[in-house]
C-alpha cells in the first residue's frame, strides 16, 4: 500500500471499518448473504466471535462455497456514496489514513481493493484472514487471547482486540519519528470507546450518533480529552471530517502566525548585556537678557 507522502499538514485519520466505512457488519453480511444465518446463530452462544467466524468459514468451504463467491458477496456490501469521496478528499489534503477494525484483513482488503481506495491507507490493523492450502478462508484473532490477555481491563474491549492499545502504539511510533500529528478517530461500536479515551486534547473523535460508542461517550463526555464531533451517515461523515481537517489547518496557520509574530518581536528587542552607544543629551542654552 502507498500513501501521500507530500503531507502539508499533521493529521492521521483512523477509520473503523464495519458500520463506519461500510454501512453493515461485514461478518454478518457474508454469513447472511450465503445463507448460513441459522447455523451462525445456533453456534454463537458456544464460542468467541473470532473462533465462530473461523468455524463458519470452514462450514462454507465444506458446503461448496468458494473464495471467489465470498469475494463476490463482499463486493455487494452497501456503502454510502459519500464515504469514498471523503476518503479520497482526506488523502488529497495530505492526511495519512489508517484502518483499525475488529473485522478481518481478508474482508477489508477485498473491499477496499474493489472500491479502488486500498492505496490511500498506510496501515490496516485487523484480525488476520488468509486462504490456506485447502482454499479455506481462515480467521484468527488479532491478539491470541487463548495464550494471554491483551492487558486492557475495559469491558468494552473484546478479548481478541483492544483498539486503545493499537492507538497507543500508533501514537508512540509517531512520537519516535518526531512527528507531532493530530489524530482524528472515526468509529461506531463499543470497541471504539477505549481508543477514544486514549486520544489527546489536540485530537478529535468522531463517534457515529446513536451507535454504541456515541452512547458510551454521551454518558460522561468529560472523560474524553479529544474534541468530539458526531456524525450520522456517509454524507455527514464527509462534511464533519472535512470540517475538522479545515479546523486543524486554521489552528496550525494561527499558531504559525503567533510564532512569527513572537520572533519578529524578539528581533526588535534589545538584548540585555549588549553595549548600546548612548547619544549625548542636548544642552539647554541659557539666554541672557
From TrEMBL:
It holds the Pfam family Put_Phosphatase. Its cofactor is Mg(2+). One of its GO terms (cellular component) is endoplasmic reticulum. Mg(2+) binds at residues 16, 18, 188. The active site is at 16 (nucleophile), 18 (proton donor). The keyword DNA-binding does not apply. GO terms for biological process: cellular response to phosphate starvation; protein tetramerization. Keywords: Hydrolase, Magnesium, Metal-binding. Substrate binds at residues 27, 102. One of its GO terms (molecular function) is phosphatase activity. InterPro entries: HAD-like_sf, HAD_hydro_PyrdxlP_Pase-like, HAD_sf, Pase_PHOSPHO-typ. Belongs to the HAD-like hydrolase superfamily. This is Uncharacterized protein. It comes from Arabis alpina.
Amino acid at each position: 500500500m502507498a500513501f501521500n507522502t507530500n503531507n502539508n499538514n499533521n493529521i492521521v485519520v483512523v477509520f473503523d471499518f464495519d458500520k463506519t466505512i461500510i454501512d453493515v457488519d461485514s461478518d454478518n453480511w457474508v454469513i447472511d448473504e450465503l445463507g448460513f444465518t441459522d447455523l451462525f446463530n445456533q453456534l454463537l452462544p458456544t464460542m468467541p466471535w473470532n473462533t465462530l467466524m473461523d468455524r463458519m468459514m470452514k462450514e462454507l468451504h465444506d458446503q461448496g462455497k468458494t473464495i471467489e463467491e465470498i469475494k463476490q458477496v463482499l463486493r455487494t456490501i452497501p456503502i454510502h456514496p459519500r464515504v469514498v469521496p471523503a476518503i479520497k478528499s482526506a488523502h488529497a489534503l495530505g492526511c495519512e489514513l489508517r484502518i483499525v477494525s475488529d473485522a478481518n484483513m481478508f474482508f477489508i482488503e477485498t473491499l477496499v481493493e474493489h472500491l479502488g481506495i486500498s492505496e490511500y491507507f498506510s496501515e490496516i490493523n485487523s484480525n488476520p484472514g488468509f486462504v490456506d492450502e485447502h482454499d479455506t478462508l481462515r480467521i484468527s484473532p488479532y491478539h491470541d487471547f487463548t495464550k494471554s490477555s491483551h492487558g486492557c481491563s475495559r469491558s468494552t474491549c473484546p478479548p481478541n482486540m483492544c483498539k486503545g492499545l493499537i492507538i497507543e502504539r500508533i501514537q508512540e511510533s509517531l512520537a519516535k519519528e518526531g512527528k507531532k500529528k493530530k489524530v482524528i478517530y472515526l468509529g461506531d461500536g463499543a470497541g471504539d470507546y477505549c481508543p477514544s479515551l486514549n486520544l489527546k486534547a489536540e485530537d478529535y473523535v468522531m463517534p457515529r450518533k446513536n451507535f454504541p460508542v456515541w452512547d458510551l461517550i454521551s454518558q460522561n463526555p468529560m472523560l474524553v480529552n479529544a474534541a468530539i464531533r458526531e456524525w450520522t451517515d456517509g454524507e455527514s461523515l464527509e462534511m464533519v471530517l472535512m470540517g475538522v481537517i479545515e479546523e486543524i489547518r486554521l489552528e496550525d496557520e494561527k499558531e504559525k502566525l503567533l510564532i512569527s509574530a513572537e520572533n519578529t518581536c524578539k528581533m526588535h528587542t534589545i538584548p540585555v548585556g549588549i553595549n548600546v552607544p548612548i547619544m549625548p543629551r542636548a544642552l539647554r542654552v541659557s539666554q541672557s537678557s
